[in-house]
Design goal:
The structure holds 2 protein chains of 2 kinds. Chain A is 43% helix and 16% strand. By secondary structure, chain A is of the alpha/beta class. Chain A has a single domain, classed as Alpha/Beta hydrolase fold, catalytic domain (Rossmann fold), CATH 3.40.50.1820. In chain A, β11, α11 and β12 form a beta-alpha-beta unit. Chain B has one domain. Chain B starts with a helix and ends with a helix. Classes of the chains: A alpha/beta, B mainly alpha. Chains A and B meet through α5, α6 and α8 of A and α1 and α2 of B.
Chain lengths: 349, 120
């Protein structure tokens, strides 16, 4: 007990810092410029700093539609985007923005065929290339896969991080989508956009005592300023929820989670069939061993369709694999190796 | 009691609670019940522009009307869930009866009418 006494003033200082805005400084801090805006969506460009030799590679990032994008750019030293830029890559990121009232009518087709296509074309023009790498996280990865299947010639390689492809792999979400009897039509009709507190509660129900355990860790490690800083940043991101466009949610849950049409080659965007076998670019598929939101088998289903898939297992859970110091190092270095190797293969051919 | 033992017991208690809640959330009956409650909430909001919480507090409506709202939402849910026809007919009958009851003039107004006619 006496050995722990020296930590007491540190605990007091760090816990009081939690109450100040200072602790949240630097969140989503990698500099960018907005190179286009359409509706609520913005295309952000992150360029390598002066003094860093450009690698000649660009990567287009499709974040998840459920949360804000900055889980990929949490703060300096804990940012996937910062790591890419530091290695000389140019990053284009489609920020979906927060759905407005009128976005209740935005369909999945609007998201993929309109906004994603517009942003990707703009990125190609901005970078002056005919194809670049495409990266997607969580359902952003599913969106990226849909886009890649419809535009196979524009993709240099496809990188997926914990992205669901087969929606009928045994997991809690699969069970909830298929065994509960929620009237999706009525939900979209009444709420318009699906309320963020409903979505947040759904995620909380996956680990019912997650909040208690977080407090427990905070009390235990509150003497460590770095831990408290990360805790504040993650909580800030978790609390910064956005609604989900109503009609998009309805189609996403009904046709993908319940009917699992994508892997049955029966999924249409407008009148266009999404055929996963059209993906010819090499695919790097990351899955997290402790992921209870997207089980590994759900992500790995892409192997059945794309000819050239490399898989990488990461430690941690759905979010832990991106933000935990140990796991993110592996994730970042695998992405870096992949970008370097694809460049070498390209030069060789 | 030793600190480490206390810690172990706390941890064990947390694990046990979490496991219990997790299995509850995956239970079929719980899922049916919670989705039914959500559907009912949504239906009420659609029909009356209010949440079910508002309805249950029910400060703005007389008792008979509250009962009517409940019966109507039950009727909709039972129809959606393909309940047996007798049950649905029974609910419909109750709804009609209640509507008639609500429309009937209240006893107080009748007394007042009588009084005014007597003075005339």
């Amino acid at each position: 007990m006496a050995q722990e006494l020296w930590k007491f003033p540190l605990r007091l200082r760090n816990l009081s810092l939690l109450k100040t805005p200072l602790i949240k400084e630097g969140i989503a801090g990698t500099p960018y410029e907005v190179i286009g805006q359409r509706g609520r969506c913005r295309l952000l460009k992150f360029s390598p700093s002066i003094g860093i030799h450009p690698s000649g590679e660009a990567i287009f990032v499709t974040p998840s539609l459920i949360n804000r994008y900055y889980i990929l750019d949490l703060y300096k030293g804990c940012s996937f985007i910062e790591d890419l830029v530091d290695h000389g890559h140019t990053v284009y990121l489609l920020d979906w923005g927060a759905p407005r009232e009128q976005d209740r009518f935005a369909t999945l087709e609007d998201h993929i065929l309109n906004w994603h296509t517009w942003a990707y074309e703009l990125a190609l023009t901005s970078f002056g290339a005919t194809k670049i790498h495409l990266f997607g996280q969580c359902i952003g990865g599913t969106f990226a896969t849909l886009f890649a299947a419809l535009n196979p010639n524009k993709i240099k390689s496809l990188l997926l991080l914990t992205s669901p492809i087969d929606f009928h792999v045994e997991g809690t979400f699969y069970q909830w989508a298929n065994e509960s009897n929620i009237n999706l039509e009525q939900m979209a009709d009444v709420w318009g956009n699906i309320r963020h507190d409903f979505l947040n509660q759904t995620f909380k129900m996956l680990t019912p005592l997650g909040g208690v355990r977080q407090w427990q860790s905070l009390l235990k490690l509150s003497w460590d300023k770095e831990f408290v800083k990360k805790y504040a940043a993650i909580n800030s991101w978790v609390g910064d929820n956005i609604n989900f466009p109503g009609l998009t949610y309805k189609k996403f849950i009904q046709e993908l989670y319940i009917e699992n049409r994508l892997i049955q080659n029966e999924f249409y965007l407008g009148d266009r069939l999404v055929d996963l076998k059209m993906i010819k670019a090499p695919v790097l598929c990351f899955y997290a061993l402790g992921d209870i939101i997207v089980p590994a088998q759900s992500s790995l289903a892409i192997k059945e369709y794309a000819p050239n898939v490399e898989e990488v297992a990461l430690g941690g859970g759905h979010i832990g694999c991106v933000i935990s110091g140990k796991h993110q190092q592996k994730f970042w270095s695998e992405v870096e190796n992949w970008l370097t190797n694809t460049r070498e293969v390209e030069y060789a051919s | 009691m030793r600190v480490s033992l206390k810690k172990k017991m706390w941890q064990r208690g947390l694990d046990l609670t979490e496991n219990t809640l997790e299995s509850l959330y995956r239970d079929k009956s719980f899922l049916k019940l919670s989705s039914m409650s959500l559907n009912m909430n949504l239906w009420l909001k659609k029909a009356y522009g209010k949440n079910v919480q508002w309805f249950l507090k029910g400060l703005d409506l007389p008792n008979d009307e509250k009962h009517l709202v409940l019966l109507e939402s039950l009727h909709q849910l039972e129809s959606q869930n393909d309940a047996n026809e007798d049950r649905i007919k029974e609910l419909e009958k109750e709804i009609v009866n209640l509507k008639v009851l609500i429309k009937r003039p209240q006893p107080t107004s009748r007394i007042r009418k009588k009084q005014t006619s007597a003075t005339a």
